[in-house]
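seq:
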Amino acid sequence: ENPVTTVIYNMLAKERYTAKNNLACAILSEVMNSLCTETLREQEGGTYNVSVTSRISRQPADELTLMFNFNTNPQQARTLLQKAIDLLSQVADEGPSTEHFNKAKEYLQKQYTAYRATDAFWMDALTDRVRYGSDDMLTNGETLHQITTKDVQRLARKLIRSRHTTEVMMNGEE
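struct:
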C-alpha cells in the first residue's frame, strides 16, 4: 500500500588484508550499524531497519568494502542516504566515540567466543591455514584487544576518500 524505496550504497577501497585490518573492519561495521540505527531509525524515523556491512577480502584482490542497505519511503531516500554517508565522514574525521567503539569490541569478543565453540569455526580456521597459511582466526581474541579507534578511523577515511561507489535505489510500483 505504501511505496517503498530500497537503498543500497557500496563503497570500495584498496586495503591490504591483515588480521588487524579485518577486525578493525568488523568494528567499523558495528559502529556504523549503531550510528545509522540511532540516526536514520530513531531520530529521523525514516526506516525500520538499516544494515551496514563491511569486509576486507583477500581474493581476487585486497579490497575494503562497506555497504549501506535500508528501505524507506521514496521522499526520504536521498536524504537518509546522505545522512548515512555523513555519519561515516564523521567517523573518518573524528574517529568512533569511545562508547560505540567499546560496545563494538565487546560484542565482537562475545561473538568470537561463541563462534570458537562451533565446528564451523574450526573448518574456517583449517581452510584459512591450508589456503593462506594463516592462523589468524586462532588469535582473533588477542588481536581484537590491539585495535584502536585510530585503526577504525583510518579505514573510514579510506572509504570516504574512495571514488569507487555504487548507488542503487529501487522503487516499488506505485
